[in-house]
Amino acid sequence: MTTLTRDDIIPLDDYTAKRKEHRQTVRAIKQHRRIDVGPFVSFYFENRDTMWHQIQEMLYIEKGGEEQIADELEAYNPLIPQGRDLRCTMMIEIDDEKRRNTTLRKLGWIDEKIVLRAGKHTVRAEPLQETERNTSDGKTSGVHFLVFNFDDAAAAAFKNGDVRACVDIEHENYSHSALIIGATRGSLAADLA
């Protein structure tokens, strides 16, 4: 997949006029790119379409004009898969603030304990952010950006629908797994050129 450029961004008035349609289109895409693992961790696998929409939404909300576009492209282009990887936003979603704070303090370095398995192949998640998302006292952030880099054999296994695929979180305080099946599997497999 290619990254987005200034030429891909449509004028705010044009986006606003068709915003409802754009949101419906991306909602249909996103419904097959989310994997919930355990009671409160979700992986939102990104692609060029979801990142285009995110940039357009940021421009719509913040109305920063031309000056904002370069910053948004720089922020969101790293989440577009490049043909042999899957990239995602991992969210630890707990509504209750007190419970969320307590839980995040127990999940330090959870971003280093995530693997995607396709048959006998294991692809370990790597943090995809410039700033550390864990503090020295063991608290983690509620948002992480991750990349799964596949070799050819792992990519072939993942694209083979007969091979079992799953996402595992192997943290001592949060050990959960979820299968990757159906339309979600197909959508993610399409990212692995």
Task: Name some characteristics of this structure.
193 residues, alpha+beta, 8 strands
Number of helices: 7
Decide which structural class fits the backbone. Answer: alpha+beta
Overall pLDDT level: 95
**Which strands sit side by side, in order, in the main sheet?**
1-2-3-6-5-4-7-8
Quick one: how many beta strands?
8
Instruction: State which percent range the strand residues make up.
Output: 25-35%
Looking at how many chains there are and whether they match, the oligomeric state comes to single chain
What's the structural domain tally?
Answer: 1
Please tell me what the overall shape is.
Answer: globular
Helix content: 25-40%
Unreliable sequence segments: none
Structure description:
This protein is of the alpha+beta class and 193 residues long. The protein has one domain (6-189). It is built from seven helices and eight strands; from the N terminus they run H-H-E-E-H-H-E-H-E-E-E-H-E-E-H. The chain has helices spanning 12-17, 19-30, 48-62, 66-76, 97-104, 152-159, 182-189; strands spanning 34-37, 41-45, 85-92, 114-118, 121-127, 143-149, 165-171, 174-179. Strands 1-2-3-6-5-4-7-8 form an eight-stranded antiparallel sheet. A hairpin with a 2-residue loop joins strand 4 (114-118) and strand 5 (121-127). The mean pLDDT is 95.
